[in-house]
């Protein structure tokens, strides 16, 4: 548990690990604690939506692609400092699925209130660092190498966000 933290925002989402020839399909995030970083495709559930329905909807909204869910890769949670509204930290619970593209046509993400993607792209493991990727992307690359996500909560004591070219906490 994070010491001296009083206000946690709990975020829950489903995310797809979509790999092809050693590359991972990601989005460029434009809001939230992972702003200006690579992040996995996926997100929150709408009211009454199942995990897989949400994942398929998110993929289609963000890329135009239809997907097949191959397997449940596991669940991981992350705790990191993030000042938002009255919260001091975010506790991000992420369910990961291994997916493959089965159809559709690539397009830029649909624009609507709450859309947090600036677009998707394929990246290599060498393209990511702790400063350029969300914890989800780092875990996804780890999963592509060793096939497990681990069960331990990943806790960040500090977390920086790049805004207007400068890193800030």
A few lines on this structure:
The chain is 15% helix and 47% strand. It is mainly β and 169 residues long.
Write structural notes for this entry.
- Helix content is 15%, strand content 47%.
- The protein has one domain (8-168): Nucleoside Triphosphate Pyrophosphohydrolase.
- The longest helix has 13 residues, at 51-63.
- The two termini are 20 Å apart.
- With 169 residues, the protein is mainly beta.
- It is built from 2 helices and 9 strands.
Percent range of helical residues:
10-25%
Largest sheet data: 7 strands, mixed
> What is the number of E strands?
9
Overall outline: globular
CATH superfamily: Nucleoside Triphosphate Pyrophosphohydrolase
**Ranges with pLDDT <50 over ≥5 residues?**
none
Mean pLDDT: 87
Instruction: Write down the oligomeric state.
Output: single chain
Structural class by SSE content: mainly beta
How many separate helices?
A: 2
- Radius of gyration (Å): 15 Å
Overall domain count: 1
Distance, first to last CA: 20 Å
Q: Which sequence of SSEs, written as H and E, runs from N to C? A: EEEHEEEHEEE
CATH topology: Nucleoside Triphosphate Pyrophosphohydrolase
**Class, according to the CATH hierarchy?**
Alpha Beta
In the CATH hierarchy, the architecture is Alpha-Beta Complex
| Approximate strand percentage | over 45%
């Amino acid at each position: 548990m994070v010491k001296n933290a009083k206000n946690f925002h709990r975020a829950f989402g489903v995310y797809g690990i979509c790999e092809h020839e050693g590359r991972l399909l990601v989005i460029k995030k434009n809001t939230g604690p992972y702003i200006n970083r690579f992040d996995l495709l996926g997100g929150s559930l709408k009211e009454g939506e199942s995990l897989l329905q949400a994942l398929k909807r998110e993929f289609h909204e963000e890329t135009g692609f239809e997907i097949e869910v191959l397997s449940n890769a596991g669940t991981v949670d992350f705790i990191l400092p993030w000042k938002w509204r009255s919260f001091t930290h975010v506790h991000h619970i992420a369910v990961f699925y291994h997916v493959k593209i089965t159809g559709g046509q690539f397009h830029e993400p649909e624009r609507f209130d709450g859309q947090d993607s600036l677009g998707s792209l394929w990246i290599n493991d060498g393209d990511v660092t702790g400063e350029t990727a969300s914890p989800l992307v780092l875990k996804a690359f780890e999963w592509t190498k060793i096939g497990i996500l681990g069960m331990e909560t990943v806790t960040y004591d500090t977390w920086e966000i790049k805004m207007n070219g400068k890193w800030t906490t």
